[in-house]
Design goal:
Largest sheet: 7 strands, antiparallel
Protein name: SRPBCC domain-containing protein
Family: Belongs to the AHA1 family.
Strand order of the largest sheet: 1-7-6-5-4-3-2
Order of helices and strands: EHHEEEEEEH
Domain Activator of Hsp90 ATPase homologue 1/2-like C-terminal: 14-150
CATH superfamily: START domain
Structural class: alpha+beta
Helix content: 25-40%
Number of strands: 7
Shape: globular
CATH topology: Alpha-D-Glucose-1,6-Bisphosphate, Chain A, domain 4
CATH class: Alpha Beta
Organism: Leptospira noumeaensis
Distance between the termini: 47 Å
InterPro entries: ASHA1/2-like_C, START-like_dom_sf
CATH architecture: 2-Layer Sandwich
Number of domains: 1
């Protein structure tokens, strides 16, 4: 089988540590982890440690869509690696790596002339099996990173 890899990047105006922690706090996570219009979060369970598991029950049109996996690597605030399994991966384990890299940008300054912190969030999803899976996950992960950006902006204001 020819394995496919998806890469999604987003610059977010926030500190890498805050963004990293948003991925591991179930209460916060359920507020921003939205993969598309009409999709909600019914529940989130997390055991954020290497070898710990998570379960994200997404809801669409009254139907629960479980997404689950296991944390492989947790290197705060730089890197998070976990398996990812759902109906959209044909219930096969795939691998997701999320990195958080602080970006220096002198053009982004606050009112006090202090440099604003921006983080490049890079998500790499490996072991996808088809172009359809790439397309579906590209849409989902982009929506999720947009949700993280909007949520972070709302709590920092």
């Amino acid at each position: 089988m020819n394995q496919k890899v998806l890469r999604v990047e987003k610059r977010i105006s926030a500190d890498p540590t805050k963004l990293f922690r948003a991925w591991l706090n179930a209460k916060d996570f359920s507020l921003w982890f939205l993969s598309g219009e009409g999709i909600g979060i019914e529940s989130v369970t997390m055991d954020p440690r290497p070898g710990g598991r998570f379960l994200i029950n997404m809801e669409l049109d009254g139907k629960i869509l479980p997404h689950y996996g296991e944390y492989i690597t947790i290197e705060e605030p730089y890197k998070l690696v976990f398996t990812w399994r759902s109906h959209a991966t044909e219930n096969r384990d795939t691998l997701v790596t999320v990195t958080f890299e602080e970006v220096k940008d002198n053009k982004l300054e606050t009112k006090n002339n202090k440099q604003k912190t921006t983080t490049l969030v890079t998500l790499i999803h490996e072991d996808l099996s088809s172009e359809l899976q790439i397309k579906m996950h590209n849409h989902g992960w982009r929506s999720i990173l947009d949700g993280l950006s909007h949520w972070m902006k709302s709590i920092l204001e």
